[in-house]
Amino acid sequence: MAKDIIIIESQFIFNYDNPEAGITVGGTQRYTLELKNLLTNLGYETIIVTKANKNLTLIDAQFGKIVTFDSKYGNRGTNNFSRRVYRLAKDKNAKLVIYSDILVSYKKCYTPSIAIQHGIAWDNPYNNKVLRGILNKRYIEATLKHEKVICVDTNFINWMRERSRKYFNHPDKLVYIPNFADEEVFKFSEDKYEDKKYKLLYPRRLVNHRGFDIFSEMCLELIKAGYAVVPIYTIDDFNVKVLYEKYPQLKEVEHDVVSPAMDEMAKYYSQAYLTYIPTRWSEGTSLSAIEATMVGCPIIASDVGGLSNVVIDGFNGYIVSPSVEEFKKKTIELINDEELRDNLRKNCKQLRSTFGLKRWIKQVEAVITSVVNS
């Protein structure tokens, strides 16, 4: 007997221009993989649909069947991609479509469907008033099309409450389910930090809104001031050139650039003194912040999006403004007070069940079951 099919839409599984290079490493990819694993365990066949510069059908050892559509990269290709996802779901008579990108469902939305809201992504300084108004309208309308919307933070729920009167007619449509990390992979490190050098970890992409320049400039200023810090970047291979083009002076100081597989990240958190999430805009609840918490590596994060849902200021890390000066000031405080840093590490352990994969599976499974059985 054929299994029911559930389609997972996720635009950014591959490097768009080089899909043959394989799955890129990032929060979106980790979330998609665990969603696929959950659906497989529930007895469904899954098809992951993403964008690339060519149409492909691939079988990945971890992700299973992946279909790529050559819709244009970015917002220009959203409507085309939306229609093609919808047609594929219709052709496969899908039991459900789970949209990882709400705007993909704006043009054509399959029924029944669930959307994953990964955080407000349009709070950047480059959107003019007209464009911001259009995006606001589309996000609201697209959100209301779904049977359920899983929100990784409360920031978006509050935004909907403030922007849309229709939200109050369906307050249970939006469900807060925080992000997660696998307890078995991201094991808590009981070891007190003993290294004479302070390894500072940046586990994000090299894009402006993720604040990699804040982190880089902070580290260079600390090194110049005589602090024994070692910046560590966990990035994709193809971004190494970008890093050195912008900060060639890194080649003159001790640092490390690594491209770990998803299941290798835990060791980098366990070896680091602090983890950095210096986001400027477009943030939900960073998987990196959760992974660091699970391992016991305190976090310094910016006051953006839903980061304060994960980083409790003064408990498992600190929330600061997204500026070099503020990140540097807090880093110096924690370098000068290793006992304070170790207390933050110990506090992380108390949050493991809150942000664990087991909790996430239970909550997401309940949402999926309620939709497919309704």
Describe what this molecule looks like in 3D.
By secondary structure, this protein is of the alpha/beta class. The protein has 2 domains: 5-180 and 356-372, Rossmann fold; 198-351, Rossmann fold (3-Layer(aba) Sandwich). 36% of the residues lie in helices and 17% in strands. The chain has 12 helices and 14 strands. The protein has an 8-stranded mixed sheet with strand order 3-4-2-1-5-6-7-8, sandwiched between helices. It has a 6-stranded parallel sheet with strand order 11-10-9-12-13-14, with helices on both faces. Helix 3 links the parallel strand 5 (96-99) and strand 6. Helix 6 crosses helix 10 (324-336). The longest helix is centred in the middle third of the chain and has 16 residues, at 129-144. The mean pLDDT is 94.
Question: Keywords, please?
Answer:
36% helix; Rossmann fold; 374 residues; globular; 14 strands; alpha/beta; 2 domains; single chain
Any chance you could write out the topology, listing elements then pairs?
Elements: E1 5-9, H1 27-41, E2 45-51, E3 56-60, E4 64-69, H2 78-91, E5 96-99, H3 104-107, E6 113-117, H4 129-144, E7 148-151, H5 154-163, E8 174-176, E9 198-202, H6 212-224, E10 229-234, H7 240-246, E11 256-258, H8 265-271, E12 274-277, H9 287-295, E13 299-302, E14 317-320, H10 324-336, H11 338-348, H12 357-372
Parallel strand pairs: 1-2, 1-5, 2-4, 5-6, 6-7, 7-8, 9-10, 9-12, 10-11, 12-13, 13-14
Antiparallel strand pairs: 3-4
Helix pairs in contact: 6-10
